[in-house]
Amino acid sequence: MSKKLDEFNKKQLKEDLPEMRSGYTIKVHQKIKDGDKQRIQVFEGLIIARKHGQGINATITVRKVTSGLGVERIFPIHAPFIEKIEVVKKGKVRRSKLYYIREKTAKQSRLKEIKKTNNKKPQKSEPKKVEEPVKKVKSKVKKEVK
Asked: For a Cys-Cys bond, which of 2, 29, 70, 120 suits 83, CB 3.0-4.6 Å?
């Protein structure tokens, strides 16, 4: 029985997900049904928590502030109604759960952005040879007197 369940769960896992961590600002594109119509709604916010590992039950909690009110939504990452997830910004944090952000104002909750670094090493150029000016030195030679 568990083999069949594991096989079914493996089929449901999404392969094209970007790297997501706490502190990243993301856009979640979600399919919504309005009667017989279907549309995509975008929810952009900060990931404040990621739970339940990498499996089929994995979820992320996304928070955004809209007209002064904080809105949090919990998205199952591998759900079929999630169209795609885009990473907008990568914030530098030292915690895995950012629940303290709830108490902060918008200005206080700003996170430092992770800067992209180039992995290319700069080419070493040959050191320039500096020519020193030649000093003319008068040599004092003593003449021997016989």
From this structure: 29
